[in-house]
Design a protein that fits this description.
about 180 residues; 4-stranded antiparallel beta sheet; about 50% helix; 2 domains; alpha+beta; about 10% strand
């Protein structure tokens, strides 16, 4: 049961221990070390565990180091962080203050909450309270927030701004220089 992509591998050895590798580094997860909430033996659980850990290697191309070995080590670190969290009994990453990267749905939800508070002339709740309210929703409810017209509009603006920021990283004068 090997899963490979350029620099990341995940295998299950004869002893039933998962071995993850990237950039010449390896770590193991013994399913026996995981809580029952995290892992219950089955073929689909094996697939889910491998998928969950290797998703830690998913890093945006723009954020990956240019050097192939450094990129592989960044992917390794991402997988290892997920594995450590799972071994600690945590399936989902929870933020610590403002250092947590947040998804676009949460960003838009938080902005919407602050806009609503402003319209009502009341103080907006702290990010921690908004995060707690958001985290208390099921994943389906969180995803459904994308369909609220005001939140959808904020999401589009955030995505547009992110795209514009990436576009400005290109020197357009140099790009067009010498064409005519």
């Amino acid at each position: 049961m090997a899963r490979k992509n350029a620099v990341v591998t995940a295998d299950k050895n004869e002893a039933g221990v998962f071995v993850f590798a990237a950039g010449g580094q390896t770590f193991e997860i013994n399913p026996a070390d995981l809580s029952a909430e995290i892992y219950t033996p089955s073929k689909s659980a094996d697939y889910g565990l491998v998928h969950k850990v290797t998703l830690g290697a998913a890093i945006a191309k723009a954020d990956l180091p240019e050097d192939e070995q450094e990129a592989a080590l960044a992917k390794f670190a991402g997988m290892k962080a997920v594995a450590d969290r799972l071994l600690a009994g945590e399936w989902s990453k929870r933020g610590e203050g403002n250092s947590q990267p947040t998804g676009v749905i949460f960003q838009a939800f938080e902005e919407w909450v602050k806009n609503q508070a402003s319209k009502k002339g009341v103080e907006a709740p702290a990010t921690e309270l908004v995060r707690a309210k958001y985290d208390a929703k099921s994943r389906a409810e969180q995803l459904a927030l994308r369909n609220v017209p005001a939140i959808a509009k904020i999401i589009e603006r955030i995505k547009s701004e992110a795209g514009a920021a990436k576009a400005t990283a290109v020197d357009t004068n140099e790009l067009l220089d010498g064409l005519v």
